[in-house]
Each structure stands twice: as C-alpha cells, then as structure tokens.
Amino acid sequence: xxxxxxxxxxxxxxxxxxxxxxxxxxxxxxxxxxxxxxxxxxxxxxxxxxxxxxxxxxxxxxxxxxxxxxxxxxxxxxxxxxxxxxxxxxxxxxxxxxxxxxxxxxxxxxxxxxxxxxxxxxxxxxxxxxxxxxxxxxxxxxxxxxxxxxxxxxxxxxxxxxxxxxxxxxxxxxxxxxxxxxxxxxxxxxxxxxxxxxxxxxxxxxxxxxxxxxxxxxxxxxxxxxxxxxxxxxxxxxxxxxxxxxxxxxxxxxxxxxxxxxxxxxxxxxxxxxxxxxxxxxxxxxxxxxxxxxxxxxxxxxxxxxxxxxxxxxxxxxxxxxxxxxxxxxxxxxxxxxxxxx
Length: 342
Prior knowledge:
This protein has 8 helices and 17 strands. By secondary structure, it is an alpha+beta fold.
C-alpha cells in the first residue's frame, strides 16, 4: 500500500511570524499560509540534511514539468506527499531534491523530476504512488486548502528556479545546489546565486464620490486574461523607483489615469510567474480611462452593484463580465473594496 500523507501543510511548527491574509468574509488568501519551519541555519549543514532525507518520517513532494503530484481516487484531487519506501524511487529519479522545511517534527522535501520522459514518470506512479497523477496547481487551486496551496506553490517556484539557473550568469559555468536547494554556487568564479523574486504592484483604483454618484473602481482587461475576465491593473516594479511610484506609473501607462492616496494593502507570492505581488489601493478623480497606448484591451469604471452581477472566473455562465481567479490578490482587492462600498 502506498504511503501518502493526507494532510500536507497542516498546522505543524510554523514560524513565529507566520501570518495569513484574509479575504472579505474570513477566507484566507491562497499562497500566503506557508506554515513550514524553514530552518535557514540548519539547512546549511549537508550531514543534517542527509539525515533528514534518510528518515522514515520525512515527506517528499514530487514535481514534474511544473506540475504537482495529486491523489485522484477521491471526489477532489488532494496533494500527495510520499513517505519511505515509496518516495525512494522518486528521489532516485529527481534532478533536484530541495529541502522545504519542517512540518512539526517531519522534514518536507521537493523532488523535481524535471524533464524525465512520460513513460518513466508513469512507471514511477504505478509502482510507488498508484491512484496519483501530476496536475497543474492552477487547475485545482480552488479545491485545496490555503496551507496546501502555499506548500505546493513554494515547491513549484524553487524547482522552476533551479531549472532556469543551472549556469552562472557571470562566467557561464555550471552551478551546483547548496543549502538544501536554496542557493546555487559556481565553482569556477565563486558567485552565489539565490532564488529571484520579481516584485510587481497590483492596484485597485477607486473613485469614492464621482460627482455625487456611487463609488466606482477601475478594472481592465488585457489579452492574457481569458474569456470576459476584468481585473485590477498590475505591472512590474522598474529599477530605481519606489512601490508607490510604480503604482502611479503603471496606472498612467495603462489607462492614462492619475492617482493619489496610494495605500498598501497586502502581498502575495504568485508562483506561476515567480513574482511577489504587492497590493495597493489608490484614488483618482479622473474621468474615463484612455487605452490608446495599447497596454489594455479595455478599461472601465464599475460600481459595486454592477460587479455583483459578474460571473466567476471561467465558469461559462454567460455573464457579460467575470471576476479574476479566487486565489488571486486581485480578488482580495476587489472583494475588500466591494465590502467597503456597501
């Protein structure tokens, strides 16, 4: 019988400063509920890491082509974390083994199969994890808990970083993983490479009292969004600018709207682009957005009443407009604003 942990990412021994971000109504923002103790000091000791990996109590989270392993025998897919001896074959086939942290007394590792061929991966699953298959986290984020989503996303981001940083950016020689997979070292020039996080601002722009009418917020649509989805504006932070300056610049570049009263709300690691999304609210009294710069396909002001008629993300119910994904910080910004607007 395959030993598959049924409650990954549970309470465990979280960091003392762990904090989750709540949506309107008390729901937790996905990808912000990582509860593992990361042990940044201990993971620098190769002998300690090897001892944790060899323990029968440790858990292994397999990945393949940016997909996580899920149990699929029940009604909904559930994350699969393997124990020994079932994890042994996945570890032997892994291109990278990454220490993620400790859940209570149990070490948790990611085993990235990278570009192993489909046939080999199928054999691994049949032998060591029957009833499981690899699924893109984006497809099942709505049915996993915030803690599970945070753990799976964390593993995905680190595995992707290793695959894309196998060679030194300074001298071009191959790098080697160290510190449990949280750093890569170039033996040729000595350069140390650490996981890169790209900061991006995402902002809800509001008009609290537009000429005595109902409060409105600005939503836009670009070609990367599916269907009829409208979302908050967003963009990467440029070198040499503050976060607030990035908010003002991005809104101006995309919609020719000027903003004031820029206020930080919350942040969210976004695993599908390796970004850290920094959420803001801002105020504008400008009239209609101008999208002639081709940054957006469309941009409009909406009242809270209008947005309550929006459909869910890609639910196919025929609504004229759809909300962004439930697991996104864009959704947090929108729901908080709607709650505040009554």
